[in-house]
Amino acid sequence: MKQLKTQDRDRRDVIYRSENQVATFSDILCEKLDEIVYAEHLSPKKGMPDYGTDWEEFVDIKKSDMKNLTYDQLLLFLKNIDPKKNGGRLDLLKIFLKDRNIPFKDGQWDWRN
What is the pTM of this model? Predict the structure, then answer.
């Protein structure tokens, strides 16, 4: 008998979701067992160049490095950023974490569906 795996996410909040003729976009904050992940996703629509390839830019923060910062505080910070006015959330999040000496890992993924 196979043992079932427990869910690796405790919580997931969609901060932003949009789509146009070219692609769908979403910004998501996830709480996992030992880390918090902020990710911005882009998926081109059918008929567009690179259809079938998804992109993700991410910031991973270990919960043990969060000091007194909570998931809810991070979520509120991200929700209050106007990405059109500030050039996105990702860079402001990195500055916010660096200013508080909270280490993080960042990067970019792409994969074909």
Answer: 0.84
* Boundaries of every domain in the chain: 9-112
Minimal CA–CA distance to 63: which of 39, 36, 90, 38?
A: 36
Q: What is the pLDDT of residues 59-72, one digit of tens each?
A: 999 999 999 999 99
Q: How far apart are CA 51 and CA 93, in angstroms?
A: 29
> What's the angle, vertex CA 63, arms to CA 59 and CA 69, rounded to 5?
90
Helices and strands, counts by H and E, the chain: 3, 5
Closest CA to 97 of 24, 38, 28, 14: 38
Contact 13, 39 (CB under 8 A): no
